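Our consortium's second objective concerns turning raw sequence data into structural hypotheses that experimental partners can test. To show how far this objective has progressed, the report includes one record in full. It was chosen at random from the queue rather than selected for favorable results. The single chain below, 121 residues long, was entered without modification.
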Amino acid sequence: MRIANHFGGGARTNENGLLFEQTTSLSAVLKEAGYYVKECEVFDAEELIGLSVPQNKIYKNFLEREGIDYRKYNSKKWHPDECFVNFRNRTAYIIEKKFQNGSGSVDEKLPGCHFKKMEYQ
């Protein structure tokens, strides 16, 4: 389990959502499912099957490693909460974590999914 940042984010950051994002980990879930995770590399038995990368590490541990310059495709860096890059089917799964304890915030972010999907593709 990751250690939470108790200092928070912007003025509108939801405390519960921030805690949820910081205390959940894709790598931890993969380990619980029986995969071996070393740094960002994910193994099924002895075979490297993909990468589990959070936020900024998507650039160094995936894009740069594959010789991909994001600036050729987008003018700014995207910071997904986490990403799983599956080498077997050549697919990157972008994971955006949302926690909603009441009405409002998350349902307003859902229309942005289509836009982000187009940007990542």
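The partners drew two points from this record. Strands lie at 36-38, 41-44, 47-54, 82-86, 91-95. The radius of gyration is 16 Å. Both points have been shared with the crystallography group to help prioritize constructs.
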